[in-house]
Amino acid sequence: MRERASLAVRTWRSIEVELLGAAPRAGRSLIEENWRPDAATAYCHRCGGSVGVGEAAASGCSACRELSLPWSSAVRLGRYEGGLKDAVRSLKFHSDRHAGRVLGRALGSRIRVTLERRGDPRAILVPVPTTEYRRLWRNRGVDHTLQLVRHASAASGVPIARLLSRRHRPPQSETPPSKRVENVRRAFFLRSGAVVPSGVTVVLIDDVRTSGATLRACYRAISMETGRRREMASRIVVATVAVAGERRRGDSTTVAEQEIADQDEFSYPAA
User: Fold this and answer.
1) Which residue has the higher pLDDT, 186 or 101?
2) What whole-number distance in Å separates Cα of residue 265 and Cα of residue 271?
3) Which domains does the chain have, with CATH numbers?
4) What integer pLDDT is reported at residue 114 of this predicted model?
5) How many C-beta atoms lie closer than 10 Å to residue 265's C-beta?
6) What angle do CA 164, 216, 77 make, to 5 degrees?
7) Is residue 104 within 8 Å of 77, Cβ to Cβ?
8) Parallel, antiparallel or unpaired: strands 60-61 and 56-57
9) Ordered strands of the 236-243 beta sheet
10) Which of 12 and 125 is assigned the larger pLDDT?
11) What one-character-per-residue DSSP string does the chain give?
12) Does the pLDDT at position 74 exceed 60?
């Protein structure tokens, strides 16, 4: 009987790995491998794209310096690949609490450093929300981004503010790049009774960023409540565990160039 039960468990786990592409407990693997986030000099602190040493300044990198972004700073831990990718997927699809703790605390530490560098005395962490459908049917009943944010709050000392709700739409990962902006347009809105505190820096947190369309839609929902959209952009920091969709150095595409593609479909009315 025990052998049958053990075989059933092993079979189910193998099916999960085959379907979802990540083994459970990837968070433990990160700890065992002494994983460390990318160095702060490895990415642009304005757009979040990968850069070489000395290629970015306070005004951004060569790829984003001329862009009008709806945030003023970007924080990330690394590229969406290898062990980091496995850990994100393990948290998202297997409720891997170890991965949530390791990644959330690492992100919180980086957020704390960024806020200190900016001189922001007051800030809130705002998770990019999931829908009830996705939480129950795709994520095993767990809001994985909220798990990340709770650990990030513990590491940074910054309080959490669940300002946003989300209408169900197809996942961005399953949506063609050309349709991602439209897919999340008006998908986010302020929760009933939620108020954006005056003069507070808003740190938007998500697990993976590809084109930035989701974070832009969140910015739009928050800034519409304040009525001061361009001013709000200077108070927003985006923080993600990983950045996907980047090409290796020497190729032609950067995260900032994907932002240009988004801007072609995303307009900013005058403040």
Assistant:
1) 101
2) 19
3) 25-263 (3.40.50)
4) 95
5) 14
6) 90
7) no
8) antiparallel
9) 73-79, 236-243, 201-209, 123-127
10) 125
11) -HHHHHHHHHHHHHHHHHHHS--TTHHHHHHHTT--PPPGGGB-TTT--B--TT-EETTEETTTTT---S-SEEEEEEES-HHHHHHHHHHHHH--HHHHHHHHHHHHHHHHHHHHHHT-S-EEEEEPPPPHHHHHHTSTT--HHHHHHHHHHHHH-PPB---EEE-----GGGS-GGGHHHHHTTTEEEPTT----TTPEEEEEEEEESSSHHHHHHHHHHHHHHT-HHHHHTTEEEEEEEE-SPPPBTBS--HHHHHHHHHTT------
12) yes
Look at the block and give the residue holding tokens 């974070």: 215
Residue at 22: amino acid letter: A
Q: Specify the residue for token string 């862009």.
A: 67
Are 124 and 202 in contact, with CB atoms under 8 Å apart?
Answer: yes
Give the whole-angstrom CA distance, residue 76 versus residue 69: 16
53 is written with which tokens?
């040493």
- Write out pLDDT tens, residues 32-63: 677 889 998 999 999 999 998 888 888 899 88
> Would strands 236-243 and 73-79 be described as parallel, antiparallel, or unpaired?
parallel
| Paired tokens of 74 | 């970007």
Count of residues for the chain?
Answer: 271
Please report, for residues 23, 199, 223, the alpha-carbon distance to residue 80 in angstroms, rounded to integers and kept in the order given: 16, 33, 29
Contact 201, 166 (CB under 8 A): no
Confidence of residue 194 (pLDDT cuts 50, 70, 90): confident
Q: Which residues in 148-180 are b (16+ Cβ under 10 Å) and which e?
A: bbbbbbebbebebbebbbbeebeebeebeeeeb
Taking a C-beta distance cutoff of 8 angstroms, is the pair 115, 158 a contact? yes
Question: Measuring CA to CA, which residue among 148, 268, 178 is closest to residue 219?
Answer: 268
Lookup: tokens for 89: 């997927």
